[in-house]
Automatic annotation (TrEMBL), chains A, B, C, D:
Transmembrane segments: none annotated. Keywords: Oxidoreductase. This is Gfo/Idh/MocA family oxidoreductase. Residues 1-121 form the Gfo/Idh/MocA-like oxidoreductase N-terminal domain. Signal peptide: none annotated. Pfam families: GFO_IDH_MocA, GFO_IDH_MocA_C3.
Amino acid sequence: MVGYAFMGAAHSQGWRTVGRVFDLPLNPAMAAVCGRDPAAVRAAAGRLGWAAAETDWRALVARDDVQLVDICTPGASHAEIAIAALEAGKHVLCEKPLANTVAEAEAMVRAAAEARSRGQVAMVGFNYRRTPALALARDMIARGRVGTVRHVRVAYLQDWLVDPGFPLAWRLRRDQAGSGALGDLGAHAVDLAQHLAGEPLVQVTAQTETFTTRRPVPGEGPGVLGEVTVDDAALFGGRLASGALAAFEVSRVAAGRKNALRVEVNGTAGSLAFDLERLNELQFHDHTQDAAEAGFRRILVTEDTHPYLDAWWPPGHGLGYEHTFVHQARDLLRAIADGTDPAPSFEDGLRVQRVLAAVEESAGKNSVLIPVPQT
Amino acid sequence: MVGYAFMGAAHSQGWRTVGRVFDLPLNPAMAAVCGRDPAAVRAAAGRLGWAAAETDWRALVARDDVQLVDICTPGASHAEIAIAALEAGKHVLCEKPLANTVAEAEAMVRAAAEARSRGQVAMVGFNYRRTPALALARDMIARGRVGTVRHVRVAYLQDWLVDPGFPLAWRLRRDQAGSGALGDLGAHAVDLAQHLAGEPLVQVTAQTETFTTRRPVPGEGPGVLGEVTVDDAALFGGRLASGALAAFEVSRVAAGRKNALRVEVNGTAGSLAFDLERLNELQFHDHTQDAAEAGFRRILVTEDTHPYLDAWWPPGHGLGYEHTFVHQARDLLRAIADGTDPAPSFEDGLRVQRVLAAVEESAGKNSVLIPVPQT
Amino acid sequence: MVGYAFMGAAHSQGWRTVGRVFDLPLNPAMAAVCGRDPAAVRAAAGRLGWAAAETDWRALVARDDVQLVDICTPGASHAEIAIAALEAGKHVLCEKPLANTVAEAEAMVRAAAEARSRGQVAMVGFNYRRTPALALARDMIARGRVGTVRHVRVAYLQDWLVDPGFPLAWRLRRDQAGSGALGDLGAHAVDLAQHLAGEPLVQVTAQTETFTTRRPVPGEGPGVLGEVTVDDAALFGGRLASGALAAFEVSRVAAGRKNALRVEVNGTAGSLAFDLERLNELQFHDHTQDAAEAGFRRILVTEDTHPYLDAWWPPGHGLGYEHTFVHQARDLLRAIADGTDPAPSFEDGLRVQRVLAAVEESAGKNSVLIPVPQT
Amino acid sequence: MVGYAFMGAAHSQGWRTVGRVFDLPLNPAMAAVCGRDPAAVRAAAGRLGWAAAETDWRALVARDDVQLVDICTPGASHAEIAIAALEAGKHVLCEKPLANTVAEAEAMVRAAAEARSRGQVAMVGFNYRRTPALALARDMIARGRVGTVRHVRVAYLQDWLVDPGFPLAWRLRRDQAGSGALGDLGAHAVDLAQHLAGEPLVQVTAQTETFTTRRPVPGEGPGVLGEVTVDDAALFGGRLASGALAAFEVSRVAAGRKNALRVEVNGTAGSLAFDLERLNELQFHDHTQDAAEAGFRRILVTEDTHPYLDAWWPPGHGLGYEHTFVHQARDLLRAIADGTDPAPSFEDGLRVQRVLAAVEESAGKNSVLIPVPQT
């Protein structure tokens, strides 16, 4: 694993737990973790449960005892590491967004395609697909429970940038993060919209905004401000291939919304709604029922017949955010063992990247509709 | 009152009740109601409590015992009736949208301005401003409880057009209704956004859609379909004068959403959220509180210190939809008695109309941002 | 109508509105209102829409133009007025609780039985039965949608007595009110439990409590305190005839709960839940569905197929507290016209009174189970 | 660890994870797990991460490499194992309920007291105290945020026994489980009430019920039914030492309620409410605020200033049920290292047991109030 901050800790919890809960065809061993600071990475290895520590990702990639490289670094380094790992014969799990640019993402897709012919797999970490409630939503939509989709709306709202004193962290610098709320939150939003509806966005219109343009530079003295080079918020809309309307809003300045990824799909036969702040619940309206008894129904997604739930606790005993990483690990290990392609693939990641690029293009061109290139 | 269908019944309930609940400087007498079908309008007069019935709105406007004309007809006739009533020296209350075109709305504003110099008032029926929870929201925003506004999002979702067998009623015909979800629901959404934020929208980007393009013609035999000439749904976004982002979605095909007018305002000091399906509640997050105790708070807007509530029931005894019309009547009568201008004015109605026109223009021009003309 | 305070105002709104909304076989005329203070009752008559004012209820009862006497006074006077009105040949609507003692209630039932033989009707004002959501709940239970009832739980929580400075109003004096939260809130709770389940409570165990025992006497100088002679809260449980368990809690000191009448029924085939603070909603869990798609469903009780809703507004346009009085008026007028017995009858009121008496007896005898006498 | 079923799996997840997330003074090693079936316990050891497997708990207790015995068996064996482990010089963590009888619990308390003098600790597994939201609730009550407590109400509702075909598992047999919903769910409910309020229950009145009295015997042929010897549901109420009223309801036949542990505390300065089905949320009403802005506030208990949360994910990234066991492990290890007494102690467990015994006594004596013996 490369990187051991927030994402690295979450992935580690996934790797440590997956074999304790699920029956797996492969037993993952946590070989080595990589980071630039020698002391810090050694401490992280001990705490997170990795057998060894490396300070150069190239050394990690070169290790014989590593068959899978899990990339948890900022987006700017994804392409280089992933391509090198694939070329070194490793399977790759890469955090989202797949890359910071479409060109990088395209190169990664090419590398993954070549690797696939050698039996390697590549997966991108859109972990929210593996929230049981959203996995159930996907199943229900695929089974026709909402009919023809008319509307998809996704808002992903956080509030940690409301405070103008919040420092200029790497997530606020274009060279590191690629974009702001758009790449961080919007990538999830777009992937979920396309995944749930089962069809791609084909055009978008967008607006982006940075409300606080200068912030304190970490490590500098008080009053030293640097320029924020990414968006605080983005508002965009578009069409899915079927003609359904999709509405998106992502923000890091929505006071009181901590991690409010809200998804709603309205179709001709029903509707589904979800809020990550209540992640064990899926709201379902069955429009084929008699209106006198119809209404949005709170499905507590904790039954053993629900996705992933047969291995966990009895009904009503909810899971948390980190379980998405356990499920991601399960599905990736099964795909490796079965020789199948895990989803979401690098192509899925590229598809998201193309939407995000079109969003930025539209925002720069007075919101005019931009077609999203399809492969 | 001209018109006695849904809106006419709701307005009548307002006129009948207002003097029974509120202390008023003026006592309204319900002189006459007007409709085209003589038998039906007489029956409506008896049922709704109007002393007389007319079949020609010109006759109604000409009556000496009428000082106020309340216009509850489809949008296409608003301008003609309102201008005639104002010219005849009557006060006017006109249902929303103010008109079907900007040109009509401008003419109405001119007529209202002239009438104002003669001591007459003109008001447009954006009744949701008078939902106590939204009136409280307006007060709180004006008092700075959310700080500087960053985001306004308004969705107004209904589902009565999901069924493709729903007939081609007047609300689905451009010549009668002007537009579809846009004029009907979007007018409320835009007025509320501007009213709550206390500032106008200055540019918009939009998409509109008609999913079901042909519907059964009422009164015709089975299988006779006519063309739907208005939108089923519209998705638009824009900027308020301050730079805040505003996101709108209106639809009549959102299965399971019956009358879901949801408003959220995020500012630097707090956030407010409202859903018309739970109209006695206002959600408020105070971002200035210690995060350890902060969160969205459900204010049950039934205290006697809340807007309009001193005249109603004890705390917790909720009001309904129709009470907005009682409150509208109260405020209009007080304005007439006081010689002040009631809000929302025809200028407010024109401001909404200009946004809706810009939305339609943007939707017709690949969603490119369209500036909204300001007075 | 006798009494014109809170209940009188609510009933008046019912009488004024019922004929404007519903098609009725009888057209109610609001003949006269009665109260002790001549000036105040005249003002109330004017404001509330009554043609005449009386200061002696005996005079009201004796009026030839009065066919129905609506009793909105404190419980202590219900028996005397109701019996006199019935003996004078009037129909009677009596606010709940039916009386302050079982003996009074029994006398009222006898008077109602005699009057029934003369073609008069008598009804007690358990208005919450006529909340559309609770009327729907009753229909669904009667149709078997929850199967065999196992649990009924009703909490009715308010908070206006949390403040120790709240004065010693009539509702806090045993001689006027009979009891405290028990008679005021508990009467509704018990009636709803028996009405929804369709069977009586047969035994109860109870605890009652008065937390603030002395309060300021209205009209006296500051610091003059009088003894509170009723309960602040009561906790009781019991069995329905079928063996189902029923749990009750009523309180006026539950901070933050304004008018939280919460009802839940759990049966072998499903469950229903309701909260008066969200009175347009009924939660329904269908336990016969596949668990993978089951869950509590929010039925927005605003469809025209729902009880009372055909006469009101389109789906999603909610009603309020006062509409229960319109519906009560409708059903009473229809019963009078049809010559049928309206429900809830005085017998129903007596049944509640017997439960409340058993609750007080149990609370006085160390909570031992007390059988509730059945007729 | 003794036992490796549901509780054993949950505890194992706690032991495996605690050192990966929290900074600990002691590093737990998972020495051995014990169960009666040799093959099954070996498989469990491998899967759950225990170094060795034992088939006799006495052998486990005798192991030199075991310093702490974690008891996850049915209640009937708790006393014997716990006392033996304490006498063998081990620290003990015992699942709730502490025992099946008061006498057993008293013996355990004596053994724990003796062991304490030798530096050993004993803790009972009321894990819900360590749900962050409930830990926050306890802190807030202790800090006076609700003032003087007036009401505590706890309902713990499940529905897995609605189906009469559910088999006669050990939890339905008095000789194994001691009691039914009462000991299983009621133990949590009573512990939380006493813990949150910070004072004991001093008297109770109760009713219990078994709706389905015969169920299929596991391992027997179809149609072989055995007698259910525990309660399906219990309804009880009582007084806390301060005079506050406490209301309890526990059931395994509440259709649609999966794991609905709902707690509400109403005090003179505010109220708190919690539902385990939404375990990351705490509702708080601050009654000292201006009523115009007051209301129940949803605190998303995911801030790093909230209990246990500094070690987990960013705000809004919720935890699940199993995290209570991680937190339990943390607090126990810290107590061992610090030489302090961990809570809840065996005395706390005994206090709960005495309440449950009083509940059963009251239920057997026509619900008469039974005093709860205090130490």
